[in-house]
Amino acid sequence: MTALVPRRARRLASLAEALLTPHGMDRYLELVDPMLVRREIRGLVTDVRRQTPDTVTLTIRPSRAWRGHIAGQYVRVTVEIDGVRRTRCYSPAGSEHDESLELTIKADPQGLVSRHLNRTVTIGSVLGLSTPDGEFTLPSPRPRRILLLSGGSGITPVLSMLRTLADEKHEGDLAFLHYSNGAEDALYRAELADLARRLPGLRVVHAFTHAKTGGDLHGFFSKEHLAETAPWYPDAETFLCGPKPLMDSVREVFEADGLGAHLHTEEFTPPALTFDTENAEGQVRFARSGREFANSGKPLLEQAEEAGLSPEHGCRMGICFSCTQIKTSGCVRNAKTGETSSEENEEIQLCISVPVGDVEINA
Amino acid sequence: MTGLQDKLTPAQVEEFGREMDEVRQRIVADLGQADVDYIHNVIKTQRALEVAGRGLLFAGFFPPAWVAGVTALSVAKILDNMEIGHNVMHGQYDWTRDPALSSQKFEWDTVAPSENWRHSHNYIHHTYTNILDKDRDIGYGVLRMDPAQKWNPYYLGNPVYATLLALFFQWGVMLHDLEVDRVVKGERTWAENKPVLRKIVRKAGRQVGKDYVLFPLLTGPLAPLTFLGNATANLTRNLWAFSIIFCGHFPADVESFTEEETENESRGQWYLRQILGSANITGGKLFHIMTGNLSHQIEHHLFPDIPARRYPEIAGEVRAICEKYGLPYNTGPLHKQLFSVAKKIVKLALPWNGEPRTPATVESDKTLRAA
Ligand code: FES
What we know:
Chain B: Keywords: Oxidoreductase. Chain B: It is an enzyme of class 1 (oxidoreductase). Chain B: Its EC number is 1.14.19.-. The complex is a heterodimer of chains A (363) and B (371). Chain A has helices at 4-19, 25-32, 112-120, 155-167, 189-198, 223-229, 244-256, 300-306; strands spanning 41-49, 55-62, 75-81, 84-90, 101-106, 126-129, 146-151, 174-180, 202-208, 217-218, 237-242, 263-267, 283-286, 291-294, 324-334, 340-341, 346-349, 353-361. With 363 residues, chain A is α/β, with parallel strands linked by helices. A six-stranded antiparallel β-sheet of chain A has the order 4-3-6-1-2-5, covered by helices on one side. Chain A has a six-stranded parallel β-sheet with strand order 10-9-8-7-11-12, with helices on both faces. Chain A starts with a helix and ends with a strand. Chain B is an all-alpha fold and 371 residues long. Helix content of chain B is 60%, strand content 0%. Chain B is built from 15 helices and no strands. In chain B, helix 1 (10-30) runs antiparallel to helix 13 (311-324), helix 3 (63-89) packs across helix 9 (223-249) and helix 9 (223-249) packs across helix 14. The chains are: A alpha/beta (363), B mainly alpha (371). Chain A binds chain B through residues 15, 18-23, 27-28, 31, 80, 82-87, 288-290, 308, 310, 312, and chain B through 28, 31-37, 43-44, 47-48, 51, 91, 94-98, 100, 104, 107-109, 123, 203, 206-207, 209-210, 214-215, 218. Bound molecules: FE2/S2 (inorganic) cluster.
């Protein structure tokens, strides 16, 4: 009998879909309550809290289609601003064993979405969500020794890992080294202290880059900080997320020690992309929409937008793949890696692909 | 170019094109929340009417409920096809990046699959508006709608074909994409039609399934009444859509063009052709909404990707620009435009070639040069 219920429910659902063709059930359900949708994922904000003046921490109850996340992954969050849907990637900060979703969003002074979220989200707001994505995750079985390293709002994916490990009662050596400007910017201080009490193998270290006192360590990242926090780090797997300067200096130390393979990173700050807008040549053609314009040397996403098109996109920095389209002909340079490719019918990310001469996109 | 377009000097055409571009830019810069709220409201109304209509048909044994149900459903289908479907699929709301309002993803409540229609309508018709042998909307490959189409005895049936097309308009639009006339002439092969056909069968199957099988069955003993109700709603929508669409391009005085005339068109000339090849219908606010603002066919043809709710707001300006350049602005009440179309359909059944094509009157060269 219990097995029959879902089957019957499924049959009812497909009957409803057939009756509500061509729009489908969700387009009717959402008019009653946006959280009722079945195919898309939405999230209802159930709690809003401010840990620091320029961040907001949201607790979110995802709708039915949500299947949870893996610690370290990110989700695409969509909001409507002045009638336009905007999407950005954020890493959930909660344990992967939690049913609710926790996001901490720092307001970037130039960031449209992050500022909007900081200013306008209240309990009861509904956000658009995607299925989680990303390769920055803990291996299983879990390594015995783990070092988690983060800076600023890069704390979220590694905190998610830490909370997951805590839920799993991880028994090996665990260290968490977090960089912030000073006490007023240190996110999740109380939670981290609480975790350190609960998990005997865990050591939490707060490093303040701008304050001279109040932290466990002071100043920018150095090999000494590393040795101080986790003397066993050469035997550990290290997970790192934070601003670019921090990432660079950690990478340098690990490379020098030949430990590059044990360092796992997630980039959330856009890499400094370099474009040559002076010497750009060729024509860019978007075949499906019939738009053609002269190559300005900027990434294709920006050029398309300047030409009045609005291709789908998310992060605008080459990590989420929302902007992937088929390039039918021509050559593009990947602004992140500098590699060029001129294969026909290959998938490219519009936000980081710069045309080299004539290019045609099937969009 | 010949005809009216010769009356404007190249410099004037260019200036005229620039003025049109300015109208467009001003609206585009102003798009925002109000436009999204508007379309969301229309969608809400449409869905509510549909649910109400379907619901009322469950009480279809009670004649007032049946009539109310059919009315609600007819209005829902008209809104879905015209103010929502037609406009969304033109990309008018693509800038919102809302997948539910995306021109590439939207599907409408009619048997014609949106993907085929986007090709025949958005691309072919809107690019080659009123160019004979290129714009397949002239007579839909079935009717003789322009004196320049060569007469043959088949066209004696013009009024009959038009009546059938009006009654079964959704099926006509669906078959339109198969370009059967071109297959008959050997310009297109059946193999080329396969993918189009596959989509048609799928889409039509679903539409027929819900309107003529599932909903009637669900109402049990009332099945015949529900069937009839759904058929009536589809018919009402067909007649309405046909009327509005035919009034958009076929009243007297609307011009058509030849391929040679329109070779190497400039942007200004393209705008000019859209104006000369389209006609408006006058009416109140509700009327405009029910036509999907295609009562502003002229504005729609100038700016097919601007949200249609903006057309009434720019109509005055477009008209003033037309007056300034001595261009016609074809408009009139529904009955007048419909009558004009009907007359044409009947006249062109005969080997009548019309008066030699006189370009619409331009006030005088003097006024123009002064403009
Ligand atoms: S927008 Fe995220 S990869 Fe391009």
